[in-house]
Amino acid sequence: MARRSEHLLLRGNIWWLRVRVPDALRPIIGKVEIRRSLKTSDGAEAKRRVRIERIRVEAEFDDARVALERQRAAAGGATAAYVTLTEEQVWALAARWFVEQERAGASRPVEIGDEEVIQNLSEDLPHIERFEEVSRTVHEEVDKLLAKAGVLPGNGSVEPAWRTKLSRAIHAAMIERERRLLNRVTGGAAVTLNPNFHGLSAATELKPVAISTVTLADLIKRYNSDPTRAAPSPKTKLKQDAQARLFKDVIGGKALVSAIDREQARKLLDTVKVLPSNATKRFPKKKLAEVLEIAKAKELRPMSVTTANSYMSAFVSLLDFAVAEHIIEKNPAKDLRLASDGVKRKDKRLPFTVADLTAIFAAPLYSGCLDDEAGYNRPGPNRPRRGRFWVPLASLYSGMRLNEICQLTEDDIAVEDGTDIILVRSDEEGVKRVKTTAGHRFVPIHPELKRLGFLDHVAAIRKTQPARARLFPELTTASTGYISDNFSKWFANFLDKVGIKDARKNFHSFRHTFRDGLREAEIPQDRVRELGGWSSGSTEDDYGSGTRPSTLAQEIAKVRYEGLSLDGLRP
């Protein structure tokens, strides 16, 4: 039987959207679930409408996360500091719970071979093994265990990430207790036991669990698992990990947070001022002191001022968190940053000119259409157009960011209000990501993309690939978790090959070009923001349900690039 979408609910003969609100956001949203009528009794239509509504709900969740963070900051650290556990402490607490349960059950008589008891235990075990079915009991047991250890119960007392680990450990202990009981009743080895609990029994003596002081390494862990902060993308996490390594290299991971002073903060500033770019990749086996010596001896160019200041901003944010958690009274790194490099933000990226676009779309990639995987193509018959063909065109006529396009799946192409649209959205698995709250949107498919055969490509993917297949399956995913990173590197080389060598022009220039196209078409600002996923920063953005797809389709059709002809690319 086909499974119904977990976000669809049939009430009477009308379909509704149903979305569970994340636990951390419930105080802001004020609900456990969000339910909204899709105003249709047709199942297929409901599936189309629920996609649009899910984007809006995810945007609301993003807004709630921001509000929660502001609320927390306004409280001035009223929330108690989290208790940080270690892997050893988690295991010690779980072992203590298990031994106590074994002791409690040791006095209960067990009749070997009791068929009724065996049947009941056999039926209960699968239920207990599913965490979602016993999660409430697990959390209650965790609270009791922490209370006995002198830690206040509740999600706010133990760092969420460590509380989750402890809950999983207690769940494993709960399963082991049930399996041992079943084996005792059957008089044999009916089920396999967990080797992690081998040697633990009612007779085991355990030592009390100690709580350590907060070091810089502890603080970094707390900060990264703070539930009020959105989970970082893999790419952002790599950047955060590099920053954390530098903080610990310069100041010391074991240094007490309360002992960090202005002098040590300035030491970090002095380090990022001279540290060469991509130091970790260029000198993977060198210690920081060695890298700094090499940089000085060879007069290596340091990282950009923008990158250096991003390290300092991250460190300031880390210590701001320590202040909010009442670990320290004031931030010793406040306002420490390098002077600006003098380059205005708008000058760091340039749009493509018509001459640039002509050079790009006259390259063998577009004139030959047979990919040789080296940046150029060889002519050939019946060669299907792939990602390298479509991604630049899609950005030129939609303004979508590179990763927004690369991550598209076939179900992101939908029909709403009689209009072919592209859904720009994240997913619950974290595979699809949207850069900003305003970025959750839909974009009508430009008539030029249709003329070039974009919808035919979508149809071919749906015919040959399974549901939710990627539109450009041949694009590879980088180690960062982004599909766009490898494409970005390829495209930079491609621009060089077609003679576009200005460092201020890269793939993101398509988005700047599209923005100029919207200006030339004199499209109203509110619709410009809806098409591009830009925010005005005004509360007016929160009012209403947005412009109809058919209306936005009329607007995007006005975007043209005078002097650019793509007639030769049409099927």
Quick recap:
By secondary structure, the chain is mainly α. It has helices at 26-29, 43-74, 87-106, 115-129, 131-148, 160-186, 216-224, 234-251, 262-274, 279-282, 288-298, 305-324, 354-361, 364-367, 387-396, 402-406, 447-451, 454-464, 484-497, 509-520, 525-532, 549-556; strands at 8-11, 14-20, 33-37, 413-416, 419-424, 441-444.
How would you explain this protein's 3D organization?
The protein folds into four domains: 8-74, no CATH class; 87-197, no CATH class; 223-342, no CATH class; 347-569, hpI Integrase, Chain A, CATH 1.10.443.10. Helix content is 48%, strand content 5%. It has 22 helices and six strands. It is globular, with a radius of gyration of 29 Å. The two termini are 40 Å apart.
Major sheet characteristics: 3 strands, antiparallel
How many structural units, i.e. domains?
Answer: 4
Q: Mean pLDDT across all residues, rounded?
A: 83
Low-pLDDT residue intervals, each spanning 5 or more residues: 76-81, 374-381
Write down the oligomeric state. Answer: single chain
